[in-house]
Amino acid sequence: MLLHVREVLSPDELRQARDVLRSAPWQDGRLTAGEQSAKAKNNEQLREDCDETRALQQLLLRGLERNQIFFSAALPKQISPPLFNRYGGSANSFGNHVDSAVRFLRDGSGRVRTDISCTLFLADPDEYDGGELVIEDTFGEQRVKLPAGDMVLYPGTSVHRVLAVTRGYRTASYFWIQSMVRSDEQRRLLFDMDAHLRHLRSTFGETDPGVIGLTSTYHNLLRMWLDV
Ligand code: NI
Q1: Dist. CA 175 → ligand 1 center (Å)
Q2: How far is the CA of 212 from the centre of ligand 1 (A)?
Q3: Are 146 and 43 contained in the same domain?
Q4: Residue 33's closest CA among 42, 21, 46?
Q5: Are 152 and 46 in the same domain?
Q6: Ligand 1 centroid to 61 CA: how many Å?
Q7: What pTM was computed for the model?
Q8: Spatial CA neighbour of 228 closest among 64, 35, 78, 99
């Protein structure tokens, strides 16, 4: 499932994040690429072990924590620490690649199976030309370029690329999620059901017998499919 999640960061948080990014220590993105993706990768990223990255990670995780749509769609078991990249100038694109199936966390605290890939845009579309995230999907190619503060979730299994930025800079955060529900198909069904339930609840109220019954079915499906 490919999903656009709106306003993960408030305008105020976005301003704070962009202030930090302006003076942040960018480095060559190829330093952390695997052998295959190093050939395709040509961007800059923020050092993982600096105060700026830690401050931005906190800000982002707070935004994710309060976002109901994100939780309903991702059912996160573990979120890899958000990282930050920038495309522009001569370091402006990332060719077709697949993300590694497992992310080993830097501090040795564990690993994350990359069920879901996430990109949160930190620059507005009118600040740069190009820079679309292109995701190859069963419906064909999806081109994604979202307002600053918005995020796209897509299956970790997808081949994807970032088109060359020909004007300005595209800054973004990227990270991965290991979901409590491993199957994309099951996650999709649960997300749809939860969305319909929210609608029914607001139309008929919490105590409607049909609403109570379907809520019970939703949780029973969770119990069947969840790995906590
Ligand atoms: Ni990638």
Answers
A1: 9
A2: 41
A3: yes
A4: 42
A5: yes
A6: 20
A7: 0.94
A8: 78
pLDDT tens by residue, 66-91: 999 999 999 999 999 999 999 999 99
- Angle, helices 209-225/184-204, rounded to nearest 10 degrees: 160
Q: Residues 162, 191: one domain?
A: no
Ligand 1 mean position to 110 CA, how many Å? 20
Q: Measuring CA to CA, how many Å separate 43 from each of 1, 162, 168?
A: 26, 10, 13
Mean of per-residue pLDDT scores for the chain: 94
DSSP bridge pairs for 83? 174
CA of 145 to the centre of ligand 1 (A): 15
* Cα 154 to ligand 1 centre (Å): 11
Identify which of 123, 119, 127, 166 has the alpha carbon closest to the alpha carbon of residue 143. Answer: 119
Tokens of 226: 């969840």
Q: Which residues surround ligand 1, an ion (CB under 5 A)?
A: 99
- Asked if 169 and 191 sit in the same domain, the reply is no
Residue 105 confidence (pLDDT): 87
Residue 137 CA, ligand 1 centroid: distance in Å: 14
> What was the pLDDT predicted at 39?
82
- What are the residues facing 5 on neighbouring strands? 151
The CA 161 to ligand 1 mean position distance, Å, reads 7
